[in-house]
Amino acid sequence: MTSLLVPPESVRGMTCLDRSAFTTTVKLPFLRFHDVKVSKVRPVLKKYLLKIRNFKGFQTTDNKITAYLNPNLIQKFEDFSENDREQLSGLYEQFGITDLNVNYDNWHTNDLLKAILPEGIEVPTSYSLIGHIVHLNLRDMHLPYKTIIGQVFLDTLPVAKTVVNKMNTIDTTFRHFTMEILAVRNFMPAALKGVKVFANDLNPESYKWLKKNFVINKIKSNYQSFNMDGREFLRTVVKDDILSRRVNNEVGSEHIVMNLPSLAVEFMDVFYECFNEDEVKKMCSQPPIIHLYCFVKANKGEDACRLGQLLVEEKLGCNLQESLVDLHNKIMGKNKGPQKNQKSKNVFKVATVRSVKLKAKAQKVVSNLKNLDLKGKKGSKGNKDKTAQIDQQLLELRKEMHQSKSKMKVQNTKPEEKKKVPNRTPVQTDAATSLVGQMQI
């Protein structure tokens, strides 16, 4: 059966993405309810609802609920199963067909690529998602359409910011591979909006691509890039620019982004070491906003935000109560529940007397316990005789076990060997005495 929910055929073979070309009108069946709660009809209609991106199957207007149905499943009310028709009877007010405009933002990744790629070319559906990076392994047949494929993945995956493709097999010693960027989101929103940007990175390779990024994003002015130590960058470039803006009474505020969580807080002392009293007054007439990222290890019941604030206050040597703008907390890693056994395990287990005894090999004890005849004869006299006989047999068994135990103790006991103490010459004794005399304890 041909699907009624597909993008227009005109997009087939497209290599340069035109999002407006994916807009189409679809005939959509619907059920309308009046004064009925969604929770009452959802269990019945859930499997019939229209499921596309950025569209709600149930929509409410003026106390009326409209359920939009999948046209591939329902074209008339009789298409519902008999049981579902019985449950819906008496609840719905109207069944009908309406027109719905479906655009690029409503289609799923697979729908878009299936419509774009020529027939016979398999749709690439597998990918790896590492953070915000989508990693594809495109085949030769996909390469003419690699740019539009990357853009579709970027548009349809909410977390995606960069889409890359591996260009060859991994055959190097260090297991790294060559890759190409197919699509990327805008990573310089501030510079593109005309904001003056100072960017710094100590790593020469990162600095190289920092400059390249400005070129790729077509930013020709209002930015400067630096390859300096972070502390020196704050003491010179940042300080001079802030004071210059105060002298010239420039409007706007400064935002200092310190985005290295493990070390950023260590640079906070720069802000009270490199400014004198007059410079502090000028800067604080309109204080800059510092966006600081840091790691905080909080135990159960502790306030991570408060711990982060105390950490910064310690580095600055002052209280942030009046100057603190906001605090954000992001929990990283898995939240482990309370451990049942808080006792740490020993790396090396020392054998104790008890453990040695428990690990000793059990010795076989031979006895005649199974030979005892415990079945007595009927009658009181016969029972007494039998009891006396059993008591005698138990006494003999006890003697046998005692003798066997004595033999085991004799076998396990070994005479201790006398330790041989080497004879020490007078020269060795005098040398040891001299060494101890020189030591300070």
TrEMBL record:
Lineage of source species: Eukaryota, Metazoa, Ecdysozoa, Arthropoda, Hexapoda
Biased segments, Polar residues type: 425-441
Domain (SAM-dependent methyltransferase TRM5/TYW2-type) ranges: 188-357
Gene Ontology cellular-component terms listed: mitochondrial matrix
Family: Belongs to the class I-like SAM-binding methyltransferase superfamily. TRM5/TYW2 family.
GO biological process, one term: tRNA N1-guanine methylation
GO MF terms held by the record: tRNA (guanine(37)-N1)-methyltransferase activity
Keyword Metal-binding: no
Name of a matching Pfam family: TRM5-TYW2_MTfase
Protein name from the UniProt record: tRNA (Guanine(37)-N1)-methyltransferase
Catalyses which reaction(s): guanosine(37) in tRNA + S-adenosyl-L-methionine = N(1)-methylguanosine(37) in tRNA + S-adenosyl-L-homocysteine + H(+)
Keywords: Cytoplasm, Methyltransferase, S-adenosyl-L-methionine, Transferase, tRNA processing
Span list, region Disordered: 400-441
